[in-house]
């Protein structure tokens, strides 16, 4: 009985190993350096896009949790700073 169970476990383990073997599917590996670089560039672009989206959502979530007066105050301050920067830029010309 123990030998039979051991054989079943061994067969199950081999089946799992064969299905997860990386050499079984070489079509996913790029053949040239250019293909590898383009794949890496695509991945980097996708990661940057998802990071930017996550940052934007975190920003929105943070400001939605703030009080209305705090949001208005920040908005007024930003507007005032833009106006001041615009006037400073004109005066430096």
Question: What does the model show?
Answer:
This protein is mainly α. The protein contains three helices and no strands. The protein has helices at 2-19, 33-65, 68-92. The N and C termini lie far apart (93 Å). The mean pLDDT is 87.
Main attributes?
93 residues, elongated, single chain
**Approximate strand percentage:** under 5%
Q: SSE string, helix = H, strand = E?
A: HHH
The value of Rg in angstroms is 29 Å
Q: Estimate percent helicity.
A: over 70%
| SS-based class | mainly alpha
Query: pLDDT below 50 for ≥5 consecutive residues: which ranges?
Result: none
The count of β-strands is 0
Give the overall average pLDDT.
Answer: 87
Distance between the termini: 93 Å
Total number of helices:
3
* Morphology: elongated
Largest sheet: none
Short summary:
The protein has 93 residues and is mainly α.
Question: Secondary-structure map with pairings?
Answer:
Layout: H1 2-19, H2 33-65, H3 68-92
